[in-house]
TrEMBL record:
Family: Belongs to the protein-tyrosine phosphatase family. Non-receptor class myotubularin subfamily.
Single biological process term from Gene Ontology: phosphatidylinositol dephosphorylation
Residues engaged in binding substrate: 88-89
Annotated Gene Ontology cellular component terms: cytoplasm; membrane
Protein name, as recorded: MTMRA protein
Source organism (scientific name): Rhynochetos jubatus
Every Myotubularin phosphatase domain range: 1-129
Classification via InterPro entries: Myotubularin (IPR030564), Myotubularin-like_Pase_dom (IPR010569), Prot-tyrosine_phosphatase-like (IPR029021)
Length: 129
């Protein structure tokens, strides 16, 4: 995948041949990558959507099983579709532009009365929360 780094962490129980085969099923060939690890064994793994709906369940189950086997406590995988609950990059960029305009371009004395509501309308604080 041109959008992934040269080296990244994947569950050790996934064979290289499986990774290569599965990579074609992901949008942008973005294989699951281990993004964060906590000392208690919790991990955050990012994964792009699988293109082929018919293959999705099989591939998803194989990868989740590999993640579970790699977890020190063998805990089950909790999946969350962040596309449904997080803003996209364009919304974040627009909020940042509004925040910059509010903080840099507008004289504070003229906007003091409505500054907090203007800040809220940027959605920046919602997004970074």
């Amino acid at each position: 995948s041109p959008s992934l780094p040269e080296y990244f962490v994947v569950p050790s129980s996934l064979a290289d041949q499986d990774l290569k085969l599965y990579s074609y099923s992901f949008i942008g060939r973005r294989m699951p990558s281990w993004s964060w690890n906590h000392p208690n064994g919790s991990a955050l793994v990012r994964m792009a959507n699988i293109k082929d709906v018919l293959q999705q369940r099989r591939i998803d189950q194989r990868i989740c099983n590999a993640i579970t086997r790699s977890h020190p406590l063998r805990s089950d995988v909790y999946k969350s579709d962040l596309d449904k609950c997080l803003p996209n990059i364009q919304e974040i960029q627009a909020a940042h532009v509004k925040l910059k305009q509010l903080c840099v371009n507008e004289p504070f004395e003229e906007t003091e009365e409505k500054w907090l509501s203007s800040l809220e309308n940027t959605h920046w604080l919602d997004y970074i929360r």
